[in-house]
């Protein structure tokens, strides 16, 4: 079994109200020097069997089909080393 | 005429959409998200609410509901299809309409009677209006900001695919004050405000919303 991590982030050009809300809260709590916060999602997929290139391609397809809306979000797929 | 209204787990406004269809003179047909048939309806409404809890993204999981295979095929084939609020989000996630709906720029859920201008009165769902007509119907959403890239926005404007536009202030940060759009053929319309909540003065601010439902009856007659 392998763990594949898909990170989904709002595109840079897209307004991220959640990130802005967190950024504002950080400022109010006195955490200075943070110029921007962007908030995304992390998916951890446990993949059965051997992680071949084909299986990884399927995960990328799943990320593009369901996990991310590529109109508004970018995603990255990476294999997490076995702990 | 038979108008199907799809109920997804988490739909809230399906009953109101059915009532609006009946008020317009149609037969309302309840459709279930797990259905694999449209039961021979002549038009489909995807109602407001929080389908599948709106987990992941609004409308993202509903887009893959069994009945959506039929809805997408029928919509591409010309069947009048209306998405209201969460239904609009589902239409965008289905790529039946371009763009996406994101969290309101003011980070608050907005609920108010919203003035709109009908920009395109030649779609399947707006032919009962006059182009330029101003109407007031309720708006209630937390993720109603319509966005698309400039090229897509220019195309929507140029091809007359902006159906309704916000007046008296933009409630959610939608690009170019866009409240609703249609596909190139004009049979698929999505909008964030709720025409089905404005069909009688007893419970709505106006009866301005009824025109969406009477419009589609004209399509069936013609």
From TrEMBL, chain A:
Q: Keywords in UniProt for this one?
A: ATP-binding, Cytoplasm, Ligase, Nucleotide-binding, Purine biosynthesis
Look up the EC number in the record and give it: 6.3.5.3
Location within or outside the cell: Cytoplasm
Which NCBIfam families does this UniProt record tie to the protein? Answer: phosphoribosylformylglycinamidine synthase subunit PurS, PRK05974.1
Q: Please give the chief subcellular localization of this protein.
A: cytoplasm
Q: Name the residues that span the membrane.
A: none
User: Can you name the source organism?
Assistant: Tenggerimyces flavus
According to its UniProt record, which protein family does this protein belong to? Belongs to the PurS family.
Source organism, top-level taxon: Bacteria
State whether it acts alone or in a complex, and with which partners, per the record. Part of the FGAM synthase complex composed of 1 PurL, 1 PurQ and 2 PurS subunits.
Q: What is the lineage of its organism?
A: Bacteria, Bacillati, Actinomycetota, Actinomycetes, Propionibacteriales
Which residue positions does the secretion signal occupy?
none
Q: Which PANTHER family match?
A: PHOSPHORIBOSYLFORMYLGLYCINAMIDINE SYNTHASE SUBUNIT PURS
Pfam families reported in the protein's UniProt record:
PurS
Please give the function described in this protein's UniProt entry: Part of the phosphoribosylformylglycinamidine synthase complex involved in the purines biosynthetic pathway. Catalyzes the ATP-dependent conversion of formylglycinamide ribonucleotide (FGAR) and glutamine to yield formylglycinamidine ribonucleotide (FGAM) and glutamate. The FGAM synthase complex is composed of three subunits. PurQ produces an ammonia molecule by converting glutamine to glutamate. PurL transfers the ammonia molecule to FGAR to form FGAM in an ATP-dependent manner.
Annotated GO MF terms: phosphoribosylformylglycinamidine synthase activity
InterPro entries in the record: PurS (IPR003850), PurS-like_sf (IPR036604)
Which reaction equations make up its catalytic activity?
Answer: N(2)-formyl-N(1)-(5-phospho-beta-D-ribosyl)glycinamide + L-glutamine + ATP + H2O = 2-formamido-N(1)-(5-O-phospho-beta-D-ribosyl)acetamidine + L-glutamate + ADP + phosphate + H(+)
Top-tier EC class: ligase
**What name has this protein been given in UniProt?**
Phosphoribosylformylglycinamidine synthase subunit PurS
Protein's pathway: Purine metabolism; IMP biosynthesis via de novo pathway; 5-amino-1-(5-phospho-D-ribosyl)imidazole from N(2)-formyl-N(1)-(5-phospho-D-ribosyl)glycinamide: step 1/2
TrEMBL record, chain B:
Write out the annotated subcellular location. Cytoplasm
Could you name the active-site residues?
85 (nucleophile), 194, 196
Please state the pathway this protein functions in, per its UniProt record: Purine metabolism; IMP biosynthesis via de novo pathway; 5-amino-1-(5-phospho-D-ribosyl)imidazole from N(2)-formyl-N(1)-(5-phospho-D-ribosyl)glycinamide: step 1/2
- A Pfam family hit: GATase_5
- Identify the EC number(s): 6.3.5.3, 3.5.1.2
The protein's matches in InterPro entries, at most eight in alphabetical order, are given as:
Class_I_gatase-like, PRibForGlyAmidine_synth_PurQ
Supply the SMART domains for this chain. GATase_5
Identify the PROSITE patterns for this entry: GATASE_TYPE_1
GO-annotated molecular function: glutaminase activity; phosphoribosylformylglycinamidine synthase activity
What transmembrane ranges does the database entry give?
none
Superkingdom, according to UniProt?
A: Bacteria
Q: Show the catalytic activity.
A: L-glutamine + H2O = L-glutamate + NH4(+); N(2)-formyl-N(1)-(5-phospho-beta-D-ribosyl)glycinamide + L-glutamine + ATP + H2O = 2-formamido-N(1)-(5-O-phospho-beta-D-ribosyl)acetamidine + L-glutamate + ADP + phosphate + H(+)
Q: Identify the keywords attached in UniProt to this record, alphabetized.
A: ATP-binding, Cytoplasm, Glutamine amidotransferase, Hydrolase, Ligase, Nucleotide-binding, Purine biosynthesis
UniProt xrefs under NCBIfam families = FGAM_synth_I (TIGR01737), PRK03619.1 (NF002957)
Role: Part of the phosphoribosylformylglycinamidine synthase complex involved in the purines biosynthetic pathway. Catalyzes the ATP-dependent conversion of formylglycinamide ribonucleotide (FGAR) and glutamine to yield formylglycinamidine ribonucleotide (FGAM) and glutamate. The FGAM synthase complex is composed of three subunits. PurQ produces an ammonia molecule by converting glutamine to glutamate. PurL transfers the ammonia molecule to FGAR to form FGAM in an ATP-dependent manner.
**Subunit composition?**
Part of the FGAM synthase complex composed of 1 PurL, 1 PurQ and 2 PurS subunits.
Q: What is this protein called?
A: Phosphoribosylformylglycinamidine synthase subunit PurQ
Q: Which organism is it from?
A: Tenggerimyces flavus
* Gene label: purQ
């Amino acid at each position: 079994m392998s763990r594949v991590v898909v990170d989904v982030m709002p595109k840079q050009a897209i307004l991220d109200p959640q990130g802005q809300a967190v950024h504002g809260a950080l400022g109010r709590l006195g955490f200075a020097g943070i110029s921007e916060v962007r908030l995304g999602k992390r998916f951890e997929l446990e993949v059965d069997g051997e992680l071949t290139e084909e299986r990884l391609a399927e995960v990328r397809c799943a990320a593009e089909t369901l996990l991310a809306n590529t109109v508004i979000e970018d995603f990255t797929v990476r294999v997490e080393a076995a702990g | 005429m038979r108008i199907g209204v799809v109920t997804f787990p988490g739909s809230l406004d399906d009953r109101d959409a059915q009532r609006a269809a009946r008020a317009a003179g149609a037969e309302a047909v309840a459709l279930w998200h797990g259905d694999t048939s449209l039961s021979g309806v002549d038009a489909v409404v995807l109602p407001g609410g929080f389908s599948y809890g709106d987990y992941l993204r609004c409308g993202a999981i509903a887009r893959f509901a069994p009945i959506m295979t039929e809805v997408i095929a029928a919509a591409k084939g010309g069947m009048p299809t209306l998405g209201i609020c969460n239904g609009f989000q589902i239409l965008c996630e289905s790529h039946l309409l371009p763009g996406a709906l994101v969290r309101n720029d003011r980070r608050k859920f907005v609920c108010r009677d919203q003035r709109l201008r009908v920009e395109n009165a030649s779609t399947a769902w707006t032919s009962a209006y006059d182009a330029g007509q101003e109407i007031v119907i309720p708006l209630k959403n937390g993720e109603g900001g319509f966005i698309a890239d400039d090229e897509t926005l220019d195309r929507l404007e140029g091809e007359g695919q902006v159906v309704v536009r916000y007046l008296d202030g933009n409630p959610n940060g939608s690009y170019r004050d866009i409240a609703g759009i249609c596909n190139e053929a004009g049979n698929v319309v999505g909008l964030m405000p709720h025409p089905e909540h404005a069909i009688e003065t007893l419970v709505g601010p106006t009866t301005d919303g009824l025109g969406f439902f009477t419009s589609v009856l004209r399509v069936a007659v013609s």
